[in-house]
């Protein structure tokens, strides 16, 4: 640990300073990340369910998709949940 790092952790005793280590949150396979610390929603929505690793962890019947959120002046935001002619609903034919 260099002098700058030593000053940053000056409030800790020497034993605690020696135990400091950077965590690797990206460690593990995609399935391990989903089950553990989690992944970004965009990464999950873009995951190909044809891959064996993703297929193994996917819950049947669950669909994850992106949606548009529109800013409305003086009214807040409006988010479209789903459109009948797009995504999974277009395949169902409602």
Characterize the structure shown.
The chain is mainly alpha-helical. Helices cover 38% and strands 9% of the residues. The protein is built from 6 helices and 2 strands; from the N terminus they run H-H-H-H-H-E-E-H. Strands 1-2 form a two-stranded antiparallel sheet. It is elongated, with a radius of gyration of 22 Å. The N and C termini lie far apart (62 Å).
How would you describe this structure in keywords?
94 residues, mainly alpha, two-stranded antiparallel sheet, 6 helices
Concise overview:
The chain is mainly alpha-helical. It has helices at 3-8, 14-19, 30-35, 41-46, 52-57, 87-92; strands spanning 69-72, 76-79.
* Spatial strand arrangement across the major sheet: 1-2
Q: What order do the helices and strands follow? A: HHHHHEEH
Query: Could you tell me the number of beta strands?
Result: 2
Shape: elongated
Question: Count of DSSP helices?
Answer: 6
Judged by helices, strands and strand pairing, the structural class is: mainly alpha
Q: Which regions have little confidence, pLDDT < 50, spanning 5+ residues?
A: none
Report the end-to-end length measured between terminal Cα atoms. Answer: 62 Å
In helices, the fraction of residues equals 25-40%
The radius of gyration over CA amounts to 22 Å
Ordered list of secondary-structure elements with their pairings:
Layout: H1 3-8, H2 14-19, H3 30-35, H4 41-46, H5 52-57, E1 69-72, E2 76-79, H6 87-92
